[in-house]
Amino acid sequence: MKLGVVVAFGAAFIMLESYRADRLKIWLEPEKYEKGYQTLQGLYAIGSGSLFGKGMGESMQKLGFVPEAQNDMIYSIICEELGLFGAVCVIVLFLVLIWRFMVIANNAQDLYGALIVTGVLAHIAIQVILNIAVVTNTIPNTGISLPFISYGGTSVAFLLAEIGLALSVSRGMRLEE
Question: Which segments within 36-144 are labelled E, that is strand?
Fold first, then answer.
């Protein structure tokens, strides 16, 4: 019963605005719609990268095929230029960053510091997951940038401020000996 109510509410929410329904249609069949062009070109870039990619700066898709490649779809260009190896390296770097946030949060002096670091961790982790899921067409396109990599001054400024907060909490970490 509860699941039916949630599904009905979700369907009504999506259908209230036509662009939401369009995003779902484009996500399911990007080749049928003009707005699916960016998604298809991003997938072509990922597929053409093979195991080790074409090399730094050798992407063909960034030359106008993927619209605004430096923004939301930058991960597809990374996949094309650096291949599966480079794409996995980027994911591993984000995992290391998230793991360090977890260490800082677990060893924070007080609850307030732990909550600050947990918030930073959640923000960056969710943003990474959503961006990679959009680029690989796992979820509908949302326009979320890839932290520290996508073009955008305001995003980088806020991310650096968040990192600064996490580092200030880490200065007072209690380490068990």
Answer: none
